[in-house]
Amino acid sequence: MNIEYPRRSISGASRPGMPYRADIDGLRAIAILPVVFYHAGISGFGGGFVGVDVFFVISGFLMAGLIGGELERNEFSLIRFYERRIRRIFPALFAVMIACAVAAWLLLMPVEMEYFARSLKAAAMFGSNFQFEKETGYFDIAAQTKPLLHTWSLAVEEQFYILFPLLLITIHRFAPRRLTAVLVILFVASLVASAWMVERSQSAAFYLLPFRAWELLLGSLVAVNPLPQRIADLPKEALVALGLALIAVAVFGFDDRMAFPGIAALLPCLGAALVIQFGNGSQVTAKLLRFPPLVSVGLISYSLYLWHWPLIVFTRMLDGHSLDIAKTILVVLGSIAIAALSWAFIERPFRGSRSHIGRKSVFGGAIVVAVGAVILGNTVVHMKGIPGRLPDNVQKIYSATYDAGPYGVSPCFIDDNGGPSISDIRAGKLCNVGAQSSQDPAFVVWGDSHSGAMAPAIGVAARDAGVSGLFAGHASCPPLPRVPLSARGDTERCGAFNDAVKDLILSRHIPLVFLAAYWPKYIHDAELPNEGVYFDPSVPPPLTDKSAPIKAALSRLLNDLKKAGTRVILVHDVPEMGHYIPEAAAKAAMEGTSTDLAPPWDYVSKRQALSREVLTQLAQTYNAEIVDPLPAFCANQHCDALRNGVPLYKDADHITATTSASIAYLFRQAFQPLQRR
Q1: Does pLDDT of 128 surpass 60?
Q2: Which of 64, 367, 572, 667 could share a disulfide with 461, CB 3.0–4.6 Å?
Q3: Rounded-to-integer distance, Cα 383 and Cα 377, Å
């Protein structure tokens, strides 16, 4: 989004050799407005995120033209190039970072503040794309709590512009006639890599430069590769109209459920390339792009991109739910107004040859602010989000976030941070649950992170019964060998884990197995909507029946365990809350509002109905047993999120270790047959 652009200087002149093109400012407006509307949740703009892809193409075109022109005139200087980048990017970016830091200090809970601090550091060093790609794991907080999430695109561009000038310098010096060929090769390689990666790790394909570079290179090819006359003579009006149509199809036809970027991103990118290539010669179609209000929005598009997302994030935090129509309009208009002020009083004073701010001040100021952001970020992370900012009663509520037992983290639990290897599982080198004993384990607790949250309850009951067992848990992996899962890569990853656990149980003749998981998630192939900082119970929970593969896999497993003489206890899931309860309750306490945060009973019962039906039917078929924790959380058609002012959950659907231990009574009967052995 941080596009240095050949526009008129403050005096009205154009940069040498780079004529001003109002149609490109118009295209920038067409790129930024769908992004703002998409982020604001305005209906119909499901593919508004493709505006960023349009910006990448524009940026590649402008930078290649700028650098190439200066190289041809033997005027190019890396120092001057990066000075222009700093003048263009840093002032508004740093202003947004400072404003966000102040708002974060006042509004964010400690874990949210830690995430913000990491993103602040990353944004200052133009590495936020790496940071956010890394945070897309299972326990990542909702995107709505990340005010600097949008800086990933700035990071991609700046990483590109560290390498791209060096590439052009090298080609210009040693193989000037091979420029187009080299760019085409790099373009194709990056596009193919993006198409390959989006099927394996969509987060990597979305955030990382190697899988995005082709979009900037497409713009570069438009700039450096003069068209043959027979192509240049094609009807420009129709080609510009086609380009705008391709962008429109993406904006109005795409949504965030599709595999993106990959090949799908070609549509808006080719549209942008057509508009850029032929817009300058178009007198009718491109007149739309030169419409003065549209050009004005294009001029402030960088500031608009920077300011709109934090404004949306913090407004949602204060409002407590998704924005209604009136607030959405106010946020959009407010973003445009702030962007106009930012452009006039923050961007412009640093730009152009007439700026009174010298090179040393520009570089020195950039270094000071960047280093300050890194120091502040490190300090906040080291101090665990500085919980001392909060009143004592709020800190007490929020501390439930950290009330996690050993079974939800490494080394007991398998996630991105480590955990037992497959060979460890087969060898029985797993964390102990229950009583300490040198005898063979009498039971296994097997499942995903919800089994880790439930394991303390099972452990207390087992310890009281004098029984020892093992824990086998893996993030986002239900205890179902070879079940097909929709998330890319999960089927193979979870399959190896589940096969190893099953082999352990059968080879050791373990007499008892607890199967616990986030059953509604797998049965419906969806978590609750709007999990995170706000939750709207008027949005129906996902209820689509996707249970067929789950039922088939669980039926096979129960049959195999029954044949082996292993007793199975199926554990129903706890009610999902929708909110991250400690954060929501702490904010409610700060604001003096109600902490009765659980979804309505009708919502909970509908969401749980199918998973409870599936587990109950299979338990009856294979003579398995059921443990149902629902009555421990819900009574008289009302569920609790807190009791005695203390959260029962550490997030939206994982109960705290204290809560888990308090419901150990649910599992005592399960161990009676083992006590008689």
Answers
A1: yes
A2: 667
A3: 10
Q: DSSP string of 321-347?
A: SS--HHHHHHHHHHHHHHHHHHIIIII
Is 654 in contact with 449 (CB distance < 8 Å)? yes
567 Cβ contact partners less than 8 Å away, ≥ 6 residues apart: 511, 512, 513, 624, 625, 673
How many angstroms from the chain centroid is the CA of residue 308?
A: 18
Q: What is the 3-state secondary structure (H, E, C) of 39-76?
A: HCCCCCCCCHHHHHHHHHHHHHHHHHHHHHHHHHCCCC
The mean pLDDT of 598-626, rounded to a whole number, is: 97
Per DSSP, the three-state class of 579 is strand
In the predicted model, is pLDDT for residue 34 greater than 90? yes
Secondary structure percentages of the chain, helix, strand, coil, to 5: 60, 5, 30
Q: What is the pLDDT of residues 278-328, one digit of tens each?
A: 888 777 777 889 999 999 999 999 999 999 999 999 998 887 666 889 999
Q: What is the dihedral of CA 158, 162, 164, 166, to 10 degrees?
A: 170
Contacts of 542 (CB under 8 A, 6+ apart): 524, 525, 526, 527, 528, 529, 607
Average of per-residue pLDDT across 484-488: 73
Partners of residue 649 on adjacent β-strands = 655
| Alpha carbon distance 332, 329 (integer Å) | 5
pLDDT one-digit tens code per residue, 136-175? 754 445 677 799 999 999 999 999 999 999 999 999 999 9
Do 254 and 247 contact (CB within 8 A), yes or no? no
**What b/e string do you get for 110-147 counting C-beta neighbours within 10 Å, with b at 16 or more?**
bbbbbbbbbbbbbbbbbbbbbbbbebeeeeebbebbbb
